[in-house]
Amino acid sequence: MISGACRGGAALISVAALAAILTAACTGPADPVPAAAPATTAASPSAPAPTPSAAPSPDPERRIGKPTKACARPEPAPGESLTPDGFLVTPMDQKMLDAIGDISHAGDRQFKSSFTGAKLVLEQAFAVVYRKPSKAFDAYIEKVSRGKCLYIRDARFTKADLWGHAMKIEKERPYWQERGIGVNSFSIELDGSAVIVGVLPEDLAQAQVELPQRYGATIPLKIESHQARWLGGATGPAETPAPSPS
Questions:
Q1: Spatial separation of the C-alpha atoms in residues 108 and 42, rounded to whole Å
Q2: Domain spans of the chain?
Q3: Tens digits of residue pLDDT in 95-129
Q4: What does the angle CA 29 – CA 33 – CA 34 come to, to the nearest 5 degrees?
């Protein structure tokens, strides 16, 4: 008999059993414990399969190319600062700007058979120079780098090649006007991969067929919609000045 067990208990019950009975009698029934799920060797068909972690997307500004010596000692990326107007800005590196200025200036003159373009990657404290391989130009880049990290990358075409091709199309704008295609701007890809030709939006589909047919694919064309800008009193689209390839 279990009544009164909290005060003593029956002598014939083992100590372990008595402890269990006393615990249940004095504290009441324990909270139910959920039954363990049966072990399975395959995932439940109703449960979604675990999704593997996606690989990080490649950084479009990877540190690739032939590095200057300073790249062996990478600088920390500059922190952003807040302007009085509430805008976040990345501070400019004057030495880097001076180096890129010297490289671009020389590239447009004594190294125009090699130079394509240059850009700053301020957020990561380095710059990129695109060029056709040239030992002399590479040595010059190192010389004027001012102890800054620059990556020298190969380009398919030079800046002079691309602008020369763009000016060939520019000279034929009257022809394209007669064909019903309004060509109104020119630029080049900084990495030397293509000439960018802007045409009126309504002429885009026709231009994407006819311009490559006339000029071939030796230098790729990227033909984009470009809305004409009308100036006061003008009767046609404003000219988009193109930098000299020299």
A1: 66
A2: 66-154, 159-225
A3: 999 999 999 999 999 999 999 999 998 888 899 99
A4: 145
